[in-house]
Each structure stands twice: as structure tokens, then as C-alpha cells.
Specification:
mainly beta; 3 domains; five-stranded antiparallel sheet; 1 helix; 27 strands; globular
Length: 426
């Protein structure tokens, strides 16, 4: 595999690159350090919890372009709810980087040509403040936005533990109603941080960074999906307790392993799944990878995208009244209309054709409704084809936000932890 490291600009005119042609990002993701299974959490102290945080985050993106593209990443500090900070001390437009480690796709690859990797922080850009950081990839020639992803920076000043309790909610469909109530307890030896400035804890299902569940003194009442409760319980046993309730437990993730080239050969034509997936109601047969895409078993020669036809059998019960989407590590758990399945009346199956990167993917089937302009998916839920079970091993990551008063004030992250129902209380 051919490899380059570029610092700064590639001179476009010398390599025949048309400035009017904008590269297309096929996939962008973020993870911790060099481990694609770790969350993209940067610990700003030297004392790094290797189970949760890393010394840097890796931004990885695959593009199609005629030649090595000129790109840069700009990082923007955000509030706990991911709205960009309007604080002039934090919005440094020069906080960007073009240090990219490029690799060339295999010769037979048709879906992407170059893979870029960028570490943050690096010699060009820094994380001066803890909190949420939005990473936006731009085309250098046109400044067009190519893709976005999210990372976190933690200045650890407190400890936090999670306690899971089984609960119930009212599902719309006739499925199991198992849910979680999760309490995050933030502790700090002196108690100085346990004030109103410690205002928010945000919960995420690991690797699903676009689905925050927010418990906050400052958020609006409808910040979370309908039916999910939140409360700040108060100070108990020397810690401040934040509770999120009636979270649908969902199911263990399905697994699509594209590492087997005999089952999923590259022919240039869509390869149909050997068997269609079936409707589940909290049942599963094997443990997943906590929502991550795992590619460590893939050699450089076969590190490509394969056109796959995904099949879902809706029986018993028949097709859904809503739109059906396939959601997983292949679309960063954030589907758009291209991931909507269509129901084949002849086969009586849902079908979706997509290019998927070789590796071991985690995914689920969801239902929802496309908005009028088809730009947004409304009321996305996983209950109809997946059900719920408290036996799933999927973990949650929680971040505690403190309103720092320096530099005009910002939401900094002072504690982070990860746990699932099997490690509850740690």
C-alpha cells in the first residue's frame, strides 16, 4: 500500500487537479488513539484511562478524487448540546490542520481512492479547552464542507460512576417494554465542583455520538426524545446525581462480517446477503462490538468497499406502516434517505443496496418518517424490528459538564466514564 504524509498544501496546478472538482467523502469517523474500538475521547492530562480515553483522537476519512486532494480540518468548540460556542475566545478560525497521513486504496477499488488519517491534537492544532469539539473537513480550494465528526476533550477534575436499573416504557409497537434508568454520580474530594456550575451530564450509547441523552439544569424540556425522562436528583452520599429514565434497552447489535471474501467477493455487482435478516423481539445469538466498525483483520490488499444487498424479512407481521432504515457502523449510526429500504412485493422482503467497507459491522433496523424535504428522518425508533432486552451488552458513555468561568465561560468536561448493565456501579 502506497503511503504519504502531507503537511500544508499540495500544489494543485502541478498535478493536474481541477479546482472546480470537489472530492467526495465516502465515510468519515473518529476513534481514540490508534484503536478503532475506543471512543474519540482525548484526555488532556497525562493520567489517561486507557479503557475510556486516549492521548489523541484519530479522524479517518475515505474519499474519491482524481489525485490526492487538498483538505483541511477545522475544529469548533461546542456547548454540551453541540450548539457551537459564540464565545470569541473559543472560536479561533485558525485552529485547523492539514497534516494528513494518506494511503492509496487497492488498485481494484471502485468506490474510494484515498484514505486520510489525521491526529488531533497535532503540531498544527490544539485542544486548549475541554468539552465537545466538532471536526469539519473542508476542501482547501473551494472551502466546501466535505464531512463532519465529533470528538471530546476531558480535563479530569472529578470521578463519575454509573448505576443501571431495569425499567419499563410504553412502546408504540407490540414489543417488549424493557428500558433502563441510569444514574450518574459525580464525586469530587473537596466538594467544590458540586455546585450549580456542574450543570449537565450527557449519556451516549457507545459509538453513537449523534444521539445524546441530556440531563441538565439548563436544557429545554423537550431536549430528549419523547417519553425519556431526566432529573437532577441532588447531592447524595457525597456526590451529585443525574438520572435519565425510560431509555429503551434496545437489542444486542446485529453483525455483518464482510471479512470473508468467499462469502462477499468483489465482483463489482451487488452481493446479496446469504440469508435475509429476521424480525427480533429482544432475541440475539452472539455478542457484538459495542457499535464499532472493526477492520483490523482486513489486509491492505482487500481494504475496499463491497456493494451489498441487505435483506430484511418483516414476517410475521408484514411490512411496516413507516419507512424502514438500516442503521449502523457503516453510516456512523446516522442514516439519511440513501439508507432507506424498499419493500419488494414479489420477494416480500425489504431491500437496500449500499457500498460497505470490508470489516465487521454492527447494525440495527429502524423505522421513522422522511421529512417533507427528505432531508431529515423523524421519530426514528428501533423497537419494531429489534425489540428490547436487558441482556444486551451495549455500553453507555457519560460526560459531566462544568461551566468554566475562564475565557468568557464555556462548558468543560470534568469527568467521563463508560459502563453497561453488567458492570453497573463501577
Amino acid at each position: 500500500m502506497i503511503r504519504w504524509v502531507l503537511v500544508g498544501l499540495v500544489v494543485a496546478s502541478t498535478i493536474g487537479w481541477s479546482q472546480d472538482e470537489i472530492p467526495t467523502v465516502r465515510m468519515i469517523r473518529a476513534y481514540g488513539g490508534n484503536n478503532e474500538s475506543l471512543p474519540p475521547i482525548v484526555m488532556m492530562d497525562k493520567d489517561v484511562d486507557k479503557n475510556v480515553g486516549s492521548e489523541f483522537a484519530t479522524i479517518e476519512f475515505d474519499l474519491t478524487a482524481q489525485t490526492i486532494p487538498n483538505v483541511y480540518a477545522r475544529i469548533t468548540h461546542c456547548k454540551a448540546d453541540w450548539s457551537p460556542d459564540d464565545n470569541g475566545f473559543l472560536t479561533d478560525v485558525t485552529n485547523r490542520s492539514s497534516i494528513v497521513d494518506w494511503t492509496l486504496a487497492p488498485e481494484r477499488s471502485k468506490y474510494y481512492r484515498y484514505r486520510g488519517k489525521m491526529q488531533i491534537p497535532n503540531p498544527q492544532t490544539s485542544l486548549r479547552f475541554s468539552g465537545n469539539w466538532l471536526v469539519t473537513l473542508h476542501d482547501l480550494n473551494t472551502d466546501a464542507v466535505l464531512g463532519q465528526t465529533r470528538i471530546f476533550a476531558v480535563q479530569k477534575r472529578a470521578a463519575m460512576s454509573l448505576a443501571f436499573m431495569t425499567d419499563f416504557y410504553e412502546p408504540v409497537k407490540r414489543v417488549s417494554s424493557i428500558a433502563y434508568t441510569i444514574e450518574a454520580t459525580v464525586t469530587e474530594p473537596t466538594g467544590d465542583l458540586l455546585t450549580n456550575n456542574l450543570h449537565t451530564v450527557t449519556f451516549y450509547r457507545n459509538n453513537r455520538w449523534n444521539e445524546p441523552f441530556i440531563v441538565s439544569e439548563r436544557a429545554s424540556w423537550d431536549v430528549n426524545p419523547r417519553g425519556i425522562g431526566s432529573a437532577i436528583v441532588g447531592i447524595l452520599n457525597g456526590g451529585k446525581v443525574f438520572r435519565v429514565s425510560r431509555l429503551p434497552a434496545q437489542n444486542e447489535y446485529r453483525i455483518l462480517d464482510l471479512s470473508d471474501q468467499s462469502r462477499y467477493p468483489f465482483t463489482g455487482q451487488p452481493v446479496r446477503m446469504p440469508l435475509s435478516d429476521l424480525r427480533r423481539n429482544g432475541m440475539f445469538y452472539e455478542r457484538s462490538d459495542d457499535g464499532a466498525l472493526v477492520t483490523t483483520m482486513i489486509s491492505g490488499y482487500s481494504d475496499e468497499y463491497v456493494p451489498v444487498e441487505i435483506l430484511l424479512d418483516p414476517a410475521p407481521g408484514g411490512p411496516s406502516e413507516d419507512d424502514v432504515f438500516v442503521v449502523g457502523s457503516f453510516n456512523q449510526w446516522k442514516p439519511d434517505k440513501s439508507w432507506m429500504m424498499y419493500f419488494d412485493e414479489e420477494l416480500r422482503l425489504y431491500r437496500c443496496r449500499q457500498w460497505l467497507r470490508r470489516g465487521r459491522h454492527n447494525y440495527l433496523y429502524a423505522t421513522g418518517r422522511l421529512s417533507a424535504d427528505a432531508d431529515q428522518i423523524l421519530d426514528l425508533t428501533y423497537e419494531e424490528f429489534e425489540g428490547n432486552t436487558a441482556s444486551a451488552s451495549n455500553s453507555f458513555v457519560a460526560f459531566a459538564y462544568y461551566r468554566e468561568l475562564d475565557y468568557g465561560g464555556y462548558d468543560g468536561i470534568v469527568a467521563v466514564t463508560a459502563s453497561n448493565i453488567y458492570t453497573s456501579g463501577r
